Amino acid sequence: MNESEDRLDRAFLALADPVRRSLIARLSRGEATVNELAEPFVISKQAVSRHIQVLEAAGLITRTRDGQRRPCHLAPAALESLTAWIDTYRLIAERQYRRLDTVLNTMKEKES
Amino acid sequence: MNESEDRLDRAFLALADPVRRSLIARLSRGEATVNELAEPFVISKQAVSRHIQVLEAAGLITRTRDGQRRPCHLAPAALESLTAWIDTYRLIAERQYRRLDTVLNTMKEKES
DNA sequence: ACCGTAATCAACCTATCTGTTTATCAACTA
DNA sequence: TAGTTGATAAACAGATAGGTTGATTACGGT
Fold it and tell me: What residues form the membrane-spanning segments (chains A, B) (predicted)?
């Protein structure tokens, strides 16, 4: 039960689809229902509905109830946890590269 | 030919696997060969080799040649482009939420 | 109560992912 | 040159992703 690993799996997988990224982009401008979200797409509303379920299961969006509507809202905190994961390793790697640069420059100086 | 969309697809999909994320974590501490990367895993070296190909196709790592070895290096720039994408929409959404808070607070003030 | 609408469920199809095993390629070493 | 080692290719099997269509649930309006 690697809960946090599973969460990362689901979140990154959720973002690995252009339709779902497009839904995220749309929701960043404010809440929207399934019908509203599905409108611009060629695929069926059912397909969009399942994309939304994927995003919700990944914790990237939340849903409220308003009569028969189920408005979707973006969950910025979940997005932040993804950038946090990525940045952890990016920053370590960048430090490595800077250190390597320093070593190379030192060697070059000693040469001359 | 949505090249940049395809790149995002491949990059996020590449991160949607615990083995590949583990490889990223390892590579953040410095370059490593396929054998070195495969050693801690239970799965076969061939499987790890293909995970590495996925990471390379996604642009998340690069490879050099050193005799019969093919050392892998992390590509921080690619990771940065991912955080840039996520942060774009996260920040917009956060602004939305702050604006909503402001509206709600204003309404509360007028009430009293 | 009835009808329309928002949304989902269920069954099905196809393509892709991820692992395996076996075989092959390419480079170093004695 | 023969043998070893790093790495990959090829072919296969099982699981899952993502689309379709048709049926169903649940709420609202008249």
Answer: none
Detail the protein residues whose CB sits closer than 7 A to any atom belonging to strand C.
Answer: A 33-36, 45-46, 49, 52-53, 63, 68-71; B 13, 16-17, 19, 42-44, 46-47, 50-51, 54, 67-68
**Where residue A88 falls among pLDDT bands split at 50, 70, 90?**
very high
Domain CATH number, residue B36: 1.10.10.10
φ and ψ at residue B110, rounded to 5 degrees: -65, -30
Alpha helical stretches, state H, chain A = 3-15, 18-27, 34-38, 45-57, 76-111
Q: Which of B17, B24, B97 sits opposite A89 (nearest CB)?
A: B24
Q: What is the pLDDT of residues B77-103, one digit of tens each?
A: 999 999 999 999 999 999 988 876 676
Q: Which position has the higher pLDDT, B81 or A101?
A: B81
Average pLDDT, integer, range B13-38: 98
Distance CA B20 to C1' D27 in A: 45
Domain count, chain B: 1
Straight-line distance from CA B41 to C1' D15, in Å? Answer: 21
From the list A87, A93, A96, which residue is nearest B83 (CB)?
Answer: A87
- Measured between CA atoms, how close is A98 to chain B, in angstroms? 12
